[in-house]
Amino acid sequence: MKLTRKAIALALEMPAVSAAIAVMLLVASCERNDEHLIPCNIRVDDVELVSNPSIQHLEGSLSHQITDVWIYVEDASKQEFIGVYELPVTFPVLKEGVFTLRIKPGIKINGIAETRGEYPFYDSYDVQFDFIRDTVLDAHPRFMYADFCEFVWSEDFEDAVVSMKKSSRSDTSVMITASDGEVFEGEYSGKISLDAERFFFESFSSETFDLPGQGTEVFLEMNFMTNTEVTVGLMVNFLTESTLAPVVILNETNEWKKIYVSLKNVVSTYTTAISFNVFLAATKPGDMLESRILIDNLKLIHK
Predict the structure, then answer these.
(1) Percent of the chain with pLDDT over 90
(2) The whole model's pTM is what?
(3) How many C-beta atoms surround the C-beta of residue 169 within 10 A?
(4) Rounded Cα–Cα distance for residues 106 and 104 (Å)
(5) Cα gap 229→204, rounded to integer Å
(6) Among residues 29, 110, 157, 272, which one has the fewest Cβ atoms lying within 10 Å of its Cβ?
């Protein structure tokens, strides 16, 4: 409880009984206000990515790197944004009664913590809760790919033919590996090896893609583990020439990670391009005997 100077001064000017009553009313008023500040708490320990039956034959791997939850509460008339929270989390909601809790999956765009955002290709998870103050409600979000997803390219290295080809200046190609410790999931992953004789790698998707511009969301998903930096981007094709547009650099990691690479800005910038290829490139550092790059589950997605 907090009493203002004006309230205290007024109380001191009153007769003793009146002053006591005034103070009790102030205390009761503060207690009533404090009651309205008691939240209902929502706990989200982890999340799942599950298969969407409508597009099950297209979505491929269900690996994910959902790091955050974007929280909304809505009733019949409006939707209110509550906040963004890194998982796991218990967060307060100053609501009482029946509302819909809407949880949207959050990612680190391009693998950068400072560029967090909602992932546009996963549906939100909606659940109706009876919000009761001073309680804890558990939410178990199960996200799935949205029906509108356009999976224009997918490479999981489970087929005999790899849908990537090396450039004319590359010293090596993407190979298929089944070795212990080199497979992310399934039976195979992709592998690029660099050494003293093969020190430069550059590869493009075998297909070219007509990707939507004008700010349309376009993402490349991939799993990777590498001891050498890898550049990821698009080859932009015009009528008479092509140019490379790097987007991100994958940093060294001794464990498998997933990254969501946003290609929207590149595609929207090159308005006169006629098509695009995904490209990967890497150079073996001079002080390293061998570079090993492992990749899996490359997916090119747009709306």
Answers:
(1) 87
(2) 0.88
(3) 9
(4) 6
(5) 17
(6) 272
Listed by start position, the domains of the chain span: 40-143, 150-302
Is the Cβ–Cβ distance between 122 and 68 less than 8 Å?
Answer: no
Determine the length of the chain.
Answer: 303
Element containing residue 31 per DSSP (H, E): helix 16-35
pLDDT over threshold 80, residue 279? yes
Distance separating alpha carbons of residues 230 and 55, to the nearest angstrom: 31
Q: Which amino acid is at 275?
A: S
Contacts of 12 (CB under 8 A, 6+ apart): 19
| 9 pLDDT tier (thresholds 50, 70, 90) | very low
What top-level class would CATH report for the domain 40-143? mainly beta
> Tokens 């205390």, residue?
27
CATH class of 150-302: mainly beta
Q: Which residues pair with 275 in a beta bridge?
A: 237
Q: What 3-state class would DSSP assign to 235?
A: strand
Look at residue 172 and tell me whether its pLDDT is greater than 80.
Answer: yes
